[in-house]
Amino acid sequence: MTLAMGWDEWTKHDAVALADRVRKGDLTPAELAAQAAAGIAMMNPALDAVVEVFDDVIADPTKDGMNPGGVFAGVPLLIKDLGPTLKGRLQEFGSMIMQGNRPTQDSFLTGKIRNAGLNIIGRSTTPEFGVCSSAENALYVTRNPWDLDYTTCGSSAGTAAMLAAGVLPISHGTDGGGSIRIPAGATGSIGLKVSRGVYSLAPNLSDLSGLVSIQGCLSRSVRDTAAFVDHCRGGAPGEFMPFWSPAESYSDLITRDPGRLRIALSHEWGDFRAPPHFVAELERVGRLLEGLGHHVEWVLPPVDFRAAFAAQTTCYISNFAQVIAGHLARLGLEQPPADLLEPINIRLWEAGLHTSYSERAKMQAVFNTTSRAFGNFFEDWDIILTPITARPTPPVGTSEYLTTSTNPSVHDWFANLWQNFAYTPLANLCGIPGISLPLAEQESGLPLGIQAQARQANDGLLLQLAAQIERAIDGKWNGGRLPARHVSRGA
Fold first, then answer.
1. CA distance between the termini of the chain
2. Banded model confidence at residue 96, pLDDT cuts 50, 70, 90
3. Contact indicator for 52, 78 with CB cutoff of 8 Å
4. Model confidence at 452: pLDDT above 90
5. Cα–Cα separations (whole angstroms), residue 180 to 156, 283, 366, 419
6. Which tens digits make up the pLDDT trace of 376-388?
7. Which of 292, 294, 295 is nearest to 471 (CA)?
8. Residue 345 to residue 414: CA distance in whole angstroms
9. Distance CA 86, CA 106 (A)
C-alpha cells in the first residue's frame, strides 16, 4: 500500500495540522485512516496496545457518522476500551468476563467526538475495568515504546503507547485517579484531566454517579488538547448538574501567555515523597518557569492527606464493586467466576458490595473538606506542580500494582498503589483540573511527566501555561527525544 506521506513527515504533524491539510485538499480522511492503520500494523506486534481496528471506517471514514466538516476533518482516533460506547461495536473492558459485550447505543460523547471530525478507527487496551496501573493480563501486555521492558502505566495504556510511538497525534483516554495523566507522564505525551462539568458521561452515568471519573484525550500538542476540549465538551439533556463553558475558547486563549503566576512546587503529599532524582527534575522545571517570569516557591497544601486517601479508597472499592455487580447481574451470575475475573477485582466486589450509606456519607464529608482545603490553597496560589508519580515507572511484570496480584487484602493493595501513584487521584476527588507535561526524564531514560493542577474550572490556565512552555522549548517536548520504538524508525 502506498501511504500519503513518509513517517517522518507524518509525525511532524499534530491533529490540527493534519486537519488543515485535509481542508486544503492535500489529504483525505481515508488517507489519514489508512496511514494510522498502517502504523498500528507496524507497531502493535511489539506494543500490544490496540484491541481492534475497525476496517470499515478505515475504508469509509464517514460510515459511522464522522463529520468531515468538524475541526479535526477526519483525523483518526482510538477509543479506550472502557470509554464511550459505540453502537454495535464491541466494548470488553480489558476483561475475560466481558468478551463479546456489544453495546446497543452510542454514548453522548461518542456523538461529540464524531461531530468534531474525529474518526474512531478502533479500540485501545486497558487493564480489567481500568482498575490498576498497567494493561498486563491474559489478554494483553501493553509495553512502553521508550523501552519494551517497562509498562506504559495506565489505565489509558494502549492510547499512550500508540501516541508515543507516533502512530496517532491524539487519542481518547479516561481518568478516574490519574489514568490519563500517569500514562501520558510515563510515555511522554500531554494528558489533561479536566474539571468536573466538562465532558458528559451520558446516558449511563453522570458527574454525580461517576463522581471521580472523567473522559478526555492524550495528545502531542497543546493546541490539539485545547481543540478537543473546545469541541467535545458539554452536557447531555438531563444532567444532574450544570455544565460550564469558559468565556473564551481554549484554542484562542492559548495563543496568549498567562500573566505572572504564583506557582507552588511540592513532592511531599502526606506520607508520600518522590525520590531525589524526581525532586531535582521538578526543581529544574521550576527554574524554567521562573525564567518565564513566574514566581515559584516550595509550598505544601494544608490538606489532611491520610483522610483524603482513605476516602478515595472507599470510593474506589464501593464504585468498582457496583460496576462488577452490574455486569454479573447482566450475565445472570451470582458470583464472579475466578477464571474470568482477576483476583483483586473479585476482592473489590467482596469488600465493597455492601458499603453502607453511612460509610459513603463519611467519605463524601472528607471529599468536601479536602475540596475546601484545595480551594482555599488556590486562593493564594495559581498552580501547584508535582511529579506525575512518586516512584519510577515499573518494569513489565511488577505484579504488586496489578489486579492479577494475589494480595489477600484489597485495602493493603490500594495502600501500596498510593505509594507510587500519589499525586494524581485527589484532583479526581476534588473535581479540579490537572495536566501532565513531558518535561522531565527518569533515571531509566523513560519520560517523567510534571503535573500542574489548578482551581476548579481553571483548565484554561493550565493549557495557557502549557502553551507558553511549548513555545519556550520550541515545541520540543521530551527534550526533542523520540522513543526507541517509533514509526519513523520502523518496526
1. 16
2. very high
3. no
4. yes
5. 6, 24, 24, 18
6. 999 999 999 999 9
7. 292
8. 12
9. 5
Strand-pair partners of 170: 219
Alpha carbon distance 155, 94 (integer Å): 10
CA-to-CA separations, 462 to 16, 257, 261, 378, in angstroms, rounded:
20, 11, 11, 13
Q: Which of 388, 426, 412 is nearest to 304 (CA)?
A: 426
Q: What are phi and psi of 296, to 5 degrees?
A: -125, 135
CB 398 within 8 A of CB 151: yes
* Phi-psi category of residue 293: left, alpha or beta, with phi > 0 → left and psi -120 to 50 → alpha: left
Using CB atoms within 10 A of its CB, is residue 208 exposed (0-12), middle (13-18) or buried (19+)?
exposed
Euclidean distance between CA atoms 142 and 153, whole angstroms? 9
Per-residue pLDDT at 1 exceeds 90: no
pLDDT digits (tens, 9 = 90+) for 37-55: 999 999 999 999 999 999 9
Residue 364 scores a pLDDT above 80: yes
Q: Rounded to whole angstroms, how far apart are CA atoms 260 and 200?
A: 33
